[in-house]
Amino acid sequence: MEAALVIPLLIGVTFFVFEFGNVLYISNTLNQISREAARYAVVTPNFTEEELINATKAQELVPDIERLTITIEPPIGTTRSVGTTVTINVEYDYTPIINPFGFFNSSNEWAPKIRSSTVARSEVSNA
């Protein structure tokens, strides 16, 4: 009787710890990607989004690169001078690994977004 009460609780706690660790890993990874992207953006006069993603090695770090969105302010291709503020926002559509009882459908409309942002000043001019 005691095992029937305790085992589901232990399984639930184990799943929670596993999922929390995964979210923490993704969050830390997004922080790293946004910092690397900001550093690359402020020291490179002209770059493309593909070069930015390659410089951050995002393909190797996140489980599914298609769910990763990087936005840059000011946008790529606009003129910026030394000292201009560059903001990098990274967003990832997270889908939990564990889907108990099939409560969540697979359309990912409900999926939470994990975000990270970094602000830096440009060290080079592209004018």
Helix content: 40-55%
Q: What can be said about the biggest beta sheet? A: 3 strands, antiparallel
N-to-C terminal Cα separation, in Å? 74 Å
| Strand runs, count | 3
Structure description:
The longest helix has 42 residues. The protein has one domain. It is 43% helix and 19% strand. Strands 1-2-3 form a three-stranded antiparallel beta sheet, with helices on one face. With 127 residues, the chain is of the alpha+beta class. Helix 1 crosses helix 2. 17% of the residues are buried.
Ordered list of secondary-structure elements with their pairings:
Layout: H1 2-43, H2 49-56, H3 58-61, E1 68-73, E2 85-93, E3 113-121
Antiparallel strand pairs: 1-2, 2-3
Helix pairs in contact: 1-2
Can you tag this structure with a few keywords?
127 residues, 3-stranded antiparallel β-sheet, 43% helix, alpha+beta
Short account of what is shown:
It is built from 3 helices and 3 strands; from the N terminus they run H-H-H-E-E-E. By secondary structure, it is of the alpha+beta class. The radius of gyration is 19 Å and the shape is elongated.
